[in-house]
Amino acid sequence: MANENTISKTPAQESTQAEHTRAGFYYRPNVDIIEHPDELVLLADVPGARPDGIEVNFEDGTLTLHAKVAPRHEEVEFLVREYGVGDFWRTFRVAETVDAGKISAEYADGVLALHLPKAEAAKPRKIAIQA
Amino acid sequence: MVLRSWRPTNPLTQLRREMDRLLSGWVPDGLEWPWSGMLRSQPAVNVWETPESIHVELEVPGLKSDQLDISVVGNQLSIKIERSGPAEENVTYHRRERPVGSFLRVVQLPAEVDANRVEAELQHGVLTIKLPKAEAAKPRKIQVTSAS
Fold it and tell me: What are the Cα distances from residue B9, in Å, to A28, B4, B20?
């Protein structure tokens, strides 16, 4: 999938245990997860979502991402319809090495960026060698 | 002479609607036949039409307006996208699903458009292009006069 050079949407596969306030289909956002020495950065494509419609939850080592996307054109007759519009939903297992209290998020242009700082104990440490 | 009303009773439209209704329970929207499979290396588009204009929409998360090149030649709309990835060194990628590179999509427009009045808007990673139809392509209501 990653090497195919496509821009496409994938349906969410994880079972959605949480209760839904709106019936409908969920899409699975494409993400990049990048590890830096002191943090993990998660970039998620959630086009069409508004900043106030994005929920990020962290509970019991599970990070849940839910971006509400309002229907944009319900009344129109499509000539071409290659993608659907709906909420994005995806969960991740997060290792204990992340300092959950310091997770932060920012949103711009349809991309959600989550910063997951590593816990002190998990940061790489250079050990000085005594001669 | 064959007279066919355009929207409500077009059998194909009706069949399509019926199938949509039947399948809407389990076929995800994004996998609609047959478009998504055919066009794997191009960004997906939605196109719809109103009496005055044609609308083209694309999802382009993370894109800035200077990474976009939109042009209209005749009845062809070309959209070129340059999507750069985070060019960082000394990092490890655990997932790399977000597509990067340049993408070109050419859309054949179903009617002549007024290229000077094309508007494009980028909001929350969704690009909407509005192409007003040329005067000649707009539907015209013909007034029927009756001689009394």
Answer: 36, 8, 16
pLDDT of residue B39: 38
Count Cβ–Cβ pairs < 8 Å, chain A vs chain B. 155
Three-state DSSP at B120 gives strand
A53 vs B: CB within 8 A: no
Task: Please give the full DSSP string across A47-89, using - where no structure is assigned.
Answer: TT--GGGEEEEEETTEEEEEE----S-SS--EEEE------EE
B61 contacts on A by Cβ (under 8 Å): 45-47, 109-111
Å from B148 to nearest chain A CA?
Answer: 40
Greater model confidence, B26 or A106: A106
Whole-complex ipTM: 0.75
Q: What is the C-alpha separation between A117 and A41, in angstroms, rounded?
A: 8
Which among B57, B67, B27, B48 has a CA at the least distance from the CA of B127? B57
Contact of B126 with A47, CB cutoff 8 Å:
yes
Q: Does B66 touch chain A (CB under 8 A)?
A: no
pTM: 0.71
| Residue with more model confidence, B75 or B87 | B75
Neighbouring residues of B66: CB distance < 8 A, sequence distance ≥ 6: none
Nearest to B127 by CA among B45, B72, B71: B45
Q: Give per-residue pLDDT as tens, A60-114.
A: 888 999 999 988 887 888 898 888 898 999 999 887 778 888 899 999 999 999 9
Q: What is the dihedral of CA B87, B92, B98, B103, to 10 degrees?
A: 40
